[in-house]
Write a structure and sequence with these properties.
The complex is a heterodimer of chains A (121) and B (106). Chain A is mainly beta. Chain A is built from no helices and eleven strands. In chain A, strands 2, 4, 5, 6, 9, 10 and 11 form a seven-stranded mixed β-sheet that branches. In chain A, strands 1-3-8-7 form a four-stranded antiparallel β-sheet, with no helix packed on it. Chain A is globular, with a radius of gyration of 14 Å. Helices cover 0% and strands 50% of the residues of chain B. In chain B, the strands form two sheets. In chain B, strands 2, 4, 5, 6, 9, 10 and 11 form a seven-stranded mixed β-sheet that branches. In chain B, strand 7 and strand 8 form a beta hairpin. Chain B starts with a strand and ends with a strand. The relative contact order of chain B is 0.35. Classes of the chains: A mainly beta (121), B mainly beta (106).
């Protein structure tokens, strides 16, 4: 059974850097084709994909946020870390991490519960 | 970037109704189209991937179709637990979600 859980600060100040950790179990991020992605959702709004890291350390970023994002993995700890620089109140959202499977259309089949991050001074 | 447009943005329906949600991609995405259901306070749940492949455990009243740029999600007979927001998502080139369709009780 695949499980993921996001952790990190619930409140950050404008201009600060956000660091979120996704801790997972039930799969290995060294298995061919596997990836872990980050998706966010502002309150009452739609889902927005942010970044993804593959088993081979290949990385993909949302073009609109690429300059602010960094995604890394620690395979030994079963963790994926997302950093987002220069936080702004518009970045207030629930941040989810999700397992990207290789089969089918390569989409996100298991999600964490999400963590709400508020950006405010 | 590939843009995804869903319609309608919201709809009101009754239990037992047949409901269809459409999703259009800004360019051809073959069958790299997925559908999610999200209930308030919960993470999205994958219902259908590759346009028409129903995930294990998802009721057969849900079905998906389409290819290229135009896709549909159909609920053949709406049940009380189906009132939720539905998102389409393309996974052809990176990942992009539609703006969502909220299905409400009439």
């Amino acid at each position: 059974q695949i499980t993921l859980k996001e952790s990190g600060p619930t409140l950050v100040k404008p201009t600060q850097t956000l660091t979120l950790t996704c801790t997972f179990s039930g799969f290995s991020l060294s298995t061919y084709g596997v990836g872990v992605g980050w998706i966010r959702q502002p309150p009452g709004k739609a889902l927005e994909w942010l970044a993804l890291i593959y088993w081979d350390d290949d990385k993909r970023y949302s073009p609109s946020l690429k300059s602010r994002l960094t995604i890394t993995k620690d395979t030994s700890k079963n963790q994926v870390i997302l950093t987002m620089t220069n936080m702004d109140p518009v970045d207030t959202a629930t941040y989810y991490c999700a397992h990207r499977r290789m089969a089918g259309a390569g989409t996100f089949d298991s999600w964490g519960q999400g963590t709400l991050v508020t950006v405010s001074s | 970037d590939i843009q995804m447009t869903q319609s309608p943005s919201s709809l009101s329906a009754s239990v037992g109704d047949r409901v269809t949600i459409t999703c259009r991609a800004s360019q051809s995405i073959s069958n790299f189209l997925n559908w999610y259901q999200q209930k308030p306070g919960n993470a999205p749940k994958l219902l259908i991937d590759a346009a028409s492949s129903l995930q294990s455990g998802v009721p057969s009243r849900f079905s998906g179709g389409g290819s290229g740029t135009d896709f549909t999600l159909t609920i053949s007979s709406l049940q009380p637990e189906d009132f939720a927001t539905y998102y389409c998502q393309q996974s052809y080139s990176l990942w992009t979600f539609g703006q969502g369709t909220k299905v409400q009780i009439k």
